[in-house]
Amino acid sequence: MKKKNKIQWLLTVIVVLPLVPFIVFGLEVGNRFVAFSLEDPQAKKYSQSDMEGKITLVVLQSRTTLQTAVDCKTELKKLTQENQKVQMISIMDLRKRPPLVPKSVLKAKISGQDPTSKEIPFLLDWDGAVAQALGGEDSKCKVLIVDPTLNIVYKQEFKKASIDSEMKPLLAELSSGEK
Questions:
Q1: What is the crossing angle of helices 168-175 and 66-82, to 10°?
Q2: Cα–Cα dist 170/56, whole Å
Q3: Which of 77, 100, 106, 119 has an alpha carbon 20 to 30 Å from 23's alpha carbon atom?
């Protein structure tokens, strides 16, 4: 009887242990990153293929101010500096932009006011389709971590406290190839 209990216990551990990171970090399993084709303010194009095989930190902005986006990117930039296997992009939902402001004016404003735009691509989602498909919420900065196989393994509203407690350990785990 004891041997049977040990085997059942062992099987339980084998099944549950791989799920611990998902329980602890609130990760979503099997949520694939959407296919996209967006450009930055300098008209450089980016697509899903730019993320394949890489760990990508995605800052998702929806109806926030440009300064909120810059602040979020600046704070998270430390993670990419500490971990060379991680890249970062930012996607801004612009579907509710003021209708009379031309795209060229908005691009110039972003380029001029975002000191991180040269090192962190700021992708312009003019119709909001990509941001909406990824779960963007108005007036919130969301952070997604996408693994090399393009699965979203972390999606939360940005909170500075979560950098060291949630994001940094997850990025380290993904970088070490354990996941």
A1: 50
A2: 12
A3: 77
